[in-house]
């Protein structure tokens, strides 16, 4: 039997990495995206890795949680979650969700527990010589398919040079972006981040993509930018064209109204983001597909629990993403590999980043999918020089919280973050 592997501490390092001006309904991505990297130290010398948001309040909570779990066995995940919950109850920080106000009702405990749970699973895997997917029930696929995640975007940040992706502000720009991303990564499905332009312009964008890629599944996600009536109209225009419509309108009740009329399933990473949202979502028939995200569903094991509930109630299941680095990708891939009822290609922001904290080569895309690492643990290791450089970038860049709306307002003072907008 493997002896207890006790936690001796956790190093939490905020990092900043270059991010293009990706547009969404709440504003635009700042020049740098923030993440916190967790290196969990144990008495035997094994180190586990985790990755999460790095907004100021979240960092305060992570530091408190790191202290609360010293001395615990990395296999004692139930006790660890309880210890973190108890510690968070003593803190009086607010905000810091790291998702620009788009996912505000997730559980704080689950959000803070998640990177520590992932790091513990990494250590468990290293201690037992098994990949994390084995600790989650075993991989049922060798590779995990992802979708091309398209964004409307400016050519570059104001005052800076154009980035290698260039501008995408109309249907031609979206198709150009899709061609480049698919040529580089081989994705077999396309998601468009909408809610940026009036719905008819985005419908035209989706139709242009359909014409350019007749065989690829398409999705549109306006992050609740539309009223119920607008959502029903868009759903009718896109009938037979998108495989699902993602968060067209705010709230479980609005989604249920749209779902009654729409022919395609509705997916969500906004109105079902915590376990206590599942019962009303089932009762109201609000959604057909849940987009899970281990960063706020409480880690990989609780995401497996979510998958079981989705299976029981007949929900489709896929995965949401935010701007992320390689530790998160590895965790997403192990989870997806061990989730039999994953019914759609997962989301990832991976193509939008040009920097990372992990040693290169351990994880990557082949034909639009990520082969599941088979080495012990997550299968990725920290590149200490890269971590130090991206931490320095964090210190230098001055950004301490994700604020798409504030950044947009600094460029266009008339911008208002309203939901629904159309
Ligand atoms: O599916 C989603 O809602 C997302 O991916 C949320 C993200 O924050 C996305 O809107 C972004 O990166 O701007
Ligand atoms: Mg979404």
UniProtKB/TrEMBL annotation:
Enzyme class label: lyase
SMART domains: MR_MLE
Catalytic activity: D-glucarate = 5-dehydro-4-deoxy-D-glucarate + H2O
Cofactors (names): Mg(2+)
UniProt keyword list: Lyase, Magnesium, Metal-binding
Record pathway: Carbohydrate acid metabolism; D-glucarate degradation; 2,5-dioxopentanoate from D-glucarate: step 1/2
Active-site residue numbers: 193 (proton acceptor), 320 (proton acceptor)
Family that this chain belongs to: Belongs to the mandelate racemase/muconate lactonizing enzyme family. GlucD subfamily.
Protein name: glucarate dehydratase
EC numbers, comma separated: 4.2.1.40
InterPro entries recorded: DgoD-like, Enolase-like_C_sf, Enolase-like_N, Enolase_C-like, GlucD-like, Mandelate_racemase_C, Mandelate_racemase_N_dom
Domain Mandelate racemase/muconate lactonizing enzyme C-terminal: 171-265
């Amino acid at each position: 039997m493997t002896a207890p592997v006790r936690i001796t501490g956790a190093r939490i390092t905020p990092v900043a990495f270059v991010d293009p001006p990706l547009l969404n309904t709440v504003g635009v991505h700042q020049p740098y995206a923030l993440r916190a990297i967790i290196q969990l130290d144990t008495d035997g010398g094994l180190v586990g890795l985790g990755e999460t948001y790095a907004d100021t309040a979240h960092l305060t909570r992570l530091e408190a949680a790191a202290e609360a779990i010293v001395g615990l066995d990395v296999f004692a995940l139930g006790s660890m979650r309880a210890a973190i919950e108890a510690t968070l109850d003593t803190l009086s920080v607010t905000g810091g969700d790291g998702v620009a106000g788009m996912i505000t009702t997730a559980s704080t405990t689950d959000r803070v527990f998640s990177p520590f749970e992932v790091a513990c699973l990494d250590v468990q895997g290293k201690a037992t010589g098994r990949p994390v997917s084995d600790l989650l029930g075993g991989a049922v696929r060798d590779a995990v398919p992802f979708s091309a995640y398209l964004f409307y975007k400016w050519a570059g940040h104001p005052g800076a040079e154009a980035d290698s992706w260039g501008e995408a502000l109309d249907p031609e720009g979206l198709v150009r972006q899709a061609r480049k991303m698919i040529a580089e990564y081989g994705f077999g499905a396309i998601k468009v981040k909408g809610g940026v332009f009036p719905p008819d312009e985005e419908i035209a964008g989706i139709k242009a993509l359909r014409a350019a890629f007749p065989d690829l599944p398409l999705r549109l996600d306006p992050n609740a930018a539309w009223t119920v009536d607008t959502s029903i109209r868009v759903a009718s225009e896109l009938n037979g064209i998108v495989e699902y419509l993602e968060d067209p309108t705010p709230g479980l009740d609005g989604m249920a109204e749209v779902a009654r009329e729409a022919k395609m399933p509705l997916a969500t990473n906004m109105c079902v983001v915590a376990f206590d949202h599942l019962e009303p979502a089932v009762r109201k028939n609000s959604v057909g597909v849940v987009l899970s995200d281990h960063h706020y569903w409480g880690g990989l094991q609780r995401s497996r629990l979510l998958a079981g509930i989705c299976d029981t109630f007949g929900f489709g299941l896929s995965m949401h993403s935010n701007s992320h680095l390689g530790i998160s990708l590895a965790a997403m891939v192990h989870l997806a590999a061990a989730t039999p009822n994953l019914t759609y290609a997962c989301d990832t922001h991976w193509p939008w980043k040009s920097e990372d904290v992990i040693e290169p080569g351990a994880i990557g895309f082949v034909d639009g999918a990520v082969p599941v690492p088979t080495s012990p643990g997550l299968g990725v290791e920290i590149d200490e020089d890269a971590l130090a450089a991206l931490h320095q970038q964090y210190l230098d860049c001055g950004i301490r919280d994700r604020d798409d709306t504030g950044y947009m307002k600094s460029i266009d003072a008339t911008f208002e973050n309203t939901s629904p907008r159309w």
